[in-house]
Amino acid sequence: MPKSRSIGTMLRGPVGVLLACSLAYTVTWAGHYTSGDGAQKVAWAEAMLFRHSADIDPGPGVSYSRYGVGHSLLAIPPLALAHVIEQATGLRTHVALYTLLFVANGALFLALVFAYLRGAYSVRRSWAMVCLLGFATIWWPYTKLDFSEPLVLTAVFGAFLFLRGDRPLSAGLAAGIAVTIRPDALLLVMWLLVWRWWHRRDGRELARVCAGLAPSLLVWLLANAARSGNLWAAPGYEGSTFATPLLVGLYGILLSAGKSVFLYSPPLVLGIAGWRRFRRTAAGREDALFFLGAFVLQTLFYACWWDWSGDDAWGVRFLIPGVMLLAIPAVELVNRRALVGATAAIGCGIQLLGVLVCPLDYVLLLHGQPALRRTVLVDATPNRIDVDDLRFHPRYSQIAGHVLMLRVLMGIPPARADNPFDVRRGTSLYDALPAATWRAATSWDFAWGRVAAHFRGWRTSASAGPRTNQPRLDSTKTGP
Fold it and tell me: Which of these, 161, 217, 222, 221, lies nearest to 185 by C-alpha position?
């Protein structure tokens, strides 16, 4: 009897959150590569695993990955397991096991948040906050995408929890993982150290954190040397600059019709509204400043980046850590059921648009097809719908695009206009492309619809000769 109570207690705690969220995210798991960025990271992981090299040729069209080595190192265990499975059975599971890494990361972060909240809040309130973060924010679609920002957030939040638990060496190790995944995560790590120093002024603790960071710094330097021959420079970002005017970037990140972080993560509004109450609590007196600072610093930093929206992406992927951290103070408002219920409903509805259909399908459609529009009042040659239209024009935003894709999937597309280039009305999104193009580009984004076909053909595939283990940069759906 005591043993069963112990198991029940575990399932009601972080372990239960981990299992429940893993199951939920697996149900909506996509099971395919989604980005060219991810293709390079996987190619580097396989180059290290199978050829003991940093050179990813033959691979996705480039000689060296320009991304942080940490992401590729995290990809090695699932790829190694998939290789063993293929050698033993002929079954190819490389893509499936690699993409499940992001399902596991999504659930792990929420389990850590639950463990953090349980120190000061009830089980019910902690669960409510986890559900709000996990399904009403941008976090849910990113369990289907192979970007690095969610991995960075989990590592940084782990470092934050280690520091709060007076385990500085472990905090340094976790923070170091974040830096190897994305070198610009150093911004969050430095803010974490400044925040801790401001409240503790403990030189020995800071030295231990730096000692924990040292192995990751060494890995980062060796990875740079292997790719470029220069310890301090990695290849690939020579032409990228902070070229966006600050006010333009701030408007885009915070207020734009196509990319606003509040639009894609409505609970962030609750987090800001509840921040002062959270700071007045014993648990949040110090932590509230870290959460707010992370959001502000990331917003100011990425607002000036030439590609401030991080496209191709769902919303602004660069701000995932700051958005998720600043949403945590919403825990102070979860007892306001009407307010939280409305926010949750809106947030879940937004996320479902990027879960039912691949979050990148609409962006990639605009890249690959000449979607044409005519501006209102200007009788001129139609212009192509571009990234700025997606960012700033509500008619051509990602949300509008995904609503349209779902309508096409459900067989209820809008009626086509008699004159799609009417200068008095402009061009609707549906009229900007042929109906056949919308139908061809749209599909439900779940792994389970492809798993059966994959299993039916795996023996044939296994006998088709050696595989290259390299994903393609020009294809976003190559698995599972």
Answer: 217
